[in-house]
Amino acid sequence: MTVLLTADWTPFGKDDYFRKFEVYNMEWSDIDLNTLSLTSTSFGGPVAVIRDRNKFVKVQGSGKPIITIYTTSGVYISSFNWSSGQIVRLGWTSSLDLLCIMEDGHVLMYDIFSNYRHTFSMGQEAIDTKVIDAKVFYTAQSTGIAVLTAAHRIFLINSVNEPKVRRLPEIPGVHNASVCWEVMCEDRHSKVLFARGKDLYSLNEAEQNAVVLDVDLGDDVYMIKAMAVSYDFKLLAIFTDRGKLWIGKSDLSKCFRLYDVRNTLIPVQLVWCGNDAVIINWGMILEVIGLKEECIKYHYDESVFLVQEVDCVRAITLQSMDIIQKVPQVVRDIFRISGTAPGSFLLEASKQFKKKNHRSNEYLHIVKPKLFLAVQQCVEAAGHEFNTETQKMLIRAAQFGKIYLDDCSPENYVTMCRVLRCINAVRSPKIGIPITHTQLYTLTVQGLMKLLMIRHHHFLALDLAAFLKMPESSNVIRLHWACYKVKHSNRNKDQVAKEIAEKLGFNKGVSYTEIAKKAADCGKTELAIKIIEYEPLANLQVPLLLRLGEDRTALVKAIESGNTDLVYTVLSHMRENIPLGKFQMEIRGFPLAQALYLKYCRLHNKDTLKDVYTQEDDHKSQAVCYIRESLDPKNSGMREASLVAAQESYKKAKLDLHASFCEEQLKLLKYQRSLEEKFKRDFVGKSLHATVKLLLSAQEVKLADKLRTEYKVPDRRYWWLRVQVLGELGDWFELEKFSKSKKSYIGYEPFLDICLKYGNRYEAQKYLPRVREELKVKYLVKLGMMEEAAQAAFDQKDREALKYVESKCDPDLLEKVGSFLRQLPK
Amino acid sequence: MSNHLSGGKVNIALLQDHLRKQILYLIDKCNGPKAIVWDEALAGPVGLICKYKILLDHDVSRMYPLKFGKLPVTNVNNIIFISRPQIHLMDMIADIVHEEERSGIRKYCYLFFIPRRSQLCEKRLKTKGVYGNFNLIEDLPCDIFPFDSDVLSMEVETTFKDFHLEKDPTSLYQAAQAIFTLQELYGVIPKVTGKGDAARHVWKLLERLDLEPRTYPSTSQIDHLILLDRTVDLLTPLATQLTYEGLIDELFEIKNTTAHFPSENFDTEDEKDIMSDKKQVILNSADELFAEIRDKNFLAVGAVLSKRANMIKSELEERSGMGSVEQMKVLVAKLPHILAIKKSLGIHTPIAELIKQVTDSSEFLDSLQLEQELMLGVDTDRVQSHIEDCIAHEQPLIKVLRLICMQSATNSGLKPKVLDYYKREILHTYGFEHILTLTNLEDAGLLKVQQGSRGYTVLRKTLRLTVEDGSEVAPVDINYVHSIYAPLSVRLVQHIVRHGGWGNLTDVLSLLPGPILDVKQSSRYCSQNRRRASVGSQTSSINDSPKVVLVFFLGGCTYAEISALRFLSQQEDSNVEFVVATTKLINGNNFIKSLIDPIES
């Protein structure tokens, strides 16, 4: 078996090998590569096919060229008729958009499914002077385009996402010789290597002038015919019409090899195979030229098209897609004939073990000291293989070796198993991404998932995410799927929204707002509204609904969310956009909105507030508004009018009592004004009680009495007031007279209290006989008549009262109280 | 530092840490020395999370209250405003920013909203032309503040008024957010029980907000959430609280666990505050003596204080008769503890004396007597002469209203004649403008006209709301917090805890306003291990670890209610621990005050 594996290996120099193996048998059939021009991109990108302008073709049909897009396994994806101007070159962006760069300086962008995306131009100068050639190049972040105009000016943009045209310095000299050029990127800026005749220039956007480069190409007279830059822009190959191939560093600081091809034809393609070799495509012969002295040839029996990859070259023919690469070191070590690498022995041991052969043990014995390395090698080598049987064989060997290791972390092994399953899945001809392990490492798993999403293999991508335990990516994929769904589905909006919600569920990473925005962006407002329904975060949901003009729904959602601030947001939005009357009608149906609006009006717009109450026939609230008005010192002139209005409203609200309060208040105000005139004192605004009190203090008892009867002041309160005022005035005579005028409504204790309050014990004693029996002891104590108090308590046989006296009295009385206490039964 | 928060089964210090981190994170966003301008209502609560000393470490060198006018001149270039999202505060901020602009020195302004920004405020700032002056406007989502190891408060006074008078549920949204903050720290609460419109509203929000992605810890530390709308029990906040802490709040007002007392009553040997005539006392469970007496009926406080005083005296006297080094060692070890108690006795003895002066006065006793008669249902139908006298003596309106509202509550509404009489008396005595306040009280259901059923009488019997056992000093039931009245709210909680839900109480519940709620909660974002864990531990945990119940009062709760809940969990047969959350700690005075119409003058 080992022998078989190395069958497609060709020795390349002393130690190394190159291999060429078929990955796909092409699915396409009726196409003629001789008359077509192919365009593909790295990481197993799709192939765009268009009639080659430079070849003679029998015109069929309308004569308009057709652009067809296949996977690299030849599966048809889409096609479209090209009806715009002359295409100079096709190209792919790293996110798989097809760039059609036209002669007139415009670039049209299509997605992989032939849907037109948009157009941008390479600048006015490019439009004016006609583009004769173009290059697409890849920077770390994005995809760039450079165009060469008929006037030999070069314009480039570093990112198709933000097409900002940069102009490169002018190339000196005349424009008659043939040219070739390549774009190179370093860090964040791009430069162009430009060759005309035998002159080589470096054109840098940051510099004013072109820099002439000096390079020794082995001849005195020559013309540069082709150039190639390696994927990482580190290495450069130059081919001259004298058949010389210069291979060296891209800054020309070092030449590795100057090789005489002995052929002065112009190569069909000149590409790098990783950083290992340069391949010249002569049409049906591929010549692989290494950096030292190696050189091999592959012969095809039909036209072949090469695609440069990070670590290999894809060769596409009508029949097949092959990969040509230098055999990876670890694979070479394991499989080469009479190899002595530990992995090689381990593989053999594993094979013998399977055959139940005792030699398994011998091999194991040999490899034992380096078993860990051996396992690592097998795992690594498995990653480089495309054949699943070989992968299994190597993985089995690794597994076998692992058993004999005590402390081998299974992580590498497990990861590789998982990764292999994933890349095998995407390599399937149906998917058609023949990615190598090294490429996956460069691209990253997320990058691969993105490629799958772009090709609408969401389900597979989701499987990978689940399999590789990357929940974050799952959400990204779901979101991408939903956005795609929204954009392309023309079915019933309810159904689409429901389907999306079912698939997405409720996940932290999924934003329905994003999806709805997408829907809104492609004009599907209704669908957007349906989708935004599922957004759990109201503060994202509501503003979008407002943007979509769904005021009512926004209001409902804001109310549901309970976040009153959102309700205010909607209200102020509505208030600004629809007439007041309509606005007020709209919000009537929403009690919360109405309440908040009223609250707002109460603070900021009192007239509107009254309007609303009038509309709602809320007379009680109206009355409250009027009363507030009447109390506002700013409208003291309007006081009466406001009160009258309040009274009316209360009447309408059937709150007669409150209406009568208003009426009374009006009357009182009027009366207070007359009092003010009479007494030249402040009366207005005082309460009835205070007014009566003022009158009593002014000894206007008659007036006070009149007020009292008019406003039905209760007797108790009036008596309290009289007693209090007389006390304040110190008019003890009047007080006594008053006490005798009628039977007191409040008892006679208050009389006594008021005298004591103003320090008149003599007057106080006068009321003692009329104090209620049960309070007598307390008041005797208050008057300081302890002995009498004790006696009274004793007479009433009240132990509690006696105790109270005991706690208050002088020491010399204690004995007496004590004896009283003893006499009373317990 | 704040270990008094970590006392319970649910470690409230976690919440404090969480909030502190958020504040410091935002403050650190602004580089260099900075000044903070505080919305004064926030300075207190935020102080519970983040002491000034910590802010100092984060380069906060100045603190100013938010008000109109220029800030004092400083060399600090960064000004951080921390404010609630209220329009009038925006005006003050705009004013300060304008003043700073005028001064000509370029200052960097930052604005942090607690708990979150509002569109109206931002708009206001735009109209005032200062919106662009802010380098950063951020939300500082502190929805609830840790007060003690079992007490949390949102410090929003207006919840009851906003929701029940103006139908504005803004602060209930904050309450729901607060519950989510707690769930994110302590796990999803599996069971929710509640009563009242506000409770249902919050539950609806919990359901709605659960759609938003969140992460929860895998185990639930809180077993049960009880949501109580204040309208369910309007009587309790009106009744005078008779616990030590409750009385301090009634008489001296506790704000953010701090109260102020007239300083002449204290021996100010240390921490002498020459500037102010008020003695500031921090009241929380960090003070061991206070933790012991706070929940006791005031009648029982004196005994504890004198016992403690004697104990300390004897312990200190032992010192003289001390011979051996060993004994000395023991004493020295105990000394800091003894001194702490001594110091705290020096604080609480004068406070108790101050309280006693009031509680012994006939004014206080007469009102209390009326309260108790009302609660017992004695003669609640007619006009109360004590109330009349209070009006005649022009006692504070709040006190009068409190008594009238109590009568309305205990009589299940007043007879129209009685109500009209009270109304007229109030308008005549205190002024016509109070018609607005009366309207508010009526709209809020605190004053109402009697309708057929006598709900309170039924409730009083079935729930044993009044118990006259005279056991204030050695209580056997929660009635001790109001001497004879067991708070209805706490009775309901007691029932829920015993039956794991409303159980057979539905008949009685129909007498109380608002819908009932009894549901299980599971979050869609909650991992399944929680369920697995709880299934596995169910068998073992039934008897061992106490259940933790979070009681959330929507519209405020009193200190007496908290004391009653603590009392319940301390009973021998109980296996619950309560954590009390509230929109605001209230008493009858500030509760009524929040409903008094602010008359613009």
* Mean pLDDT, all residues of chain B: 86
Strand order, largest beta sheet of chain B:
6-7-15-14-9-8-13
Low-confidence stretches of chain A: none
Helix content of chain B: 40-55%
| Helix count from the secondary structure assignment of chain A | 34
Shape field of chain B: globular
Which short descriptors sum up this protein?
heterodimer, A: 826 residues, alpha+beta, five-stranded antiparallel β-sheet, four-stranded antiparallel β-sheet, 34 helices, elongated, B: 601 residues, alpha/beta, seven-stranded mixed β-sheet, five-stranded parallel β-sheet, 24 helices, 15 strands, Sec1-like_dom2 (chain B)
Please give a structural write-up.
The complex is a heterodimer of chains A (826) and B (601). By secondary structure, chain A is of the alpha+beta class. Chain A contains 34 helices and 29 strands. Chain A has a five-stranded antiparallel sheet with strand order 1-2-29-28-27, with no helix packed on it. A four-stranded antiparallel sheet of chain A has the order 3-4-5-6, with no helix packed on it. Chain A is elongated. The mean pLDDT of chain A is 86. Chain B is α/β, with parallel strands linked by helices and 601 residues long. Chain B is built from 24 helices and 15 strands. Chain B has helices at residues 13-28, 40-49, 52-57, 87-103, 119-127, 159-164, 170-186, 197-209, 235-238, 244-252, 288-293, 298-318, 325-359, 362-376, 385-392, 397-410, 416-430, 435-443, 455-462, 488-499, 506-509, 528-541, 559-570, 588-595, and strands at 34-38, 60-65, 78-83, 108-113, 134-139, 145-148, 151-153, 191-195, 224-229, 254-255, 258-262, 278-282, 516-520, 547-554, 576-582. In chain B, α4 (87-103) runs parallel beside α5, α10 (244-252) crosses α13 (325-359) and α14 (362-376) runs parallel beside α16. Chain B is globular and about 70 Å long. Chains A and B meet through α18, α20, α22, α24 and α25 of A and α5, α7, α8, α15 and α17 of B.
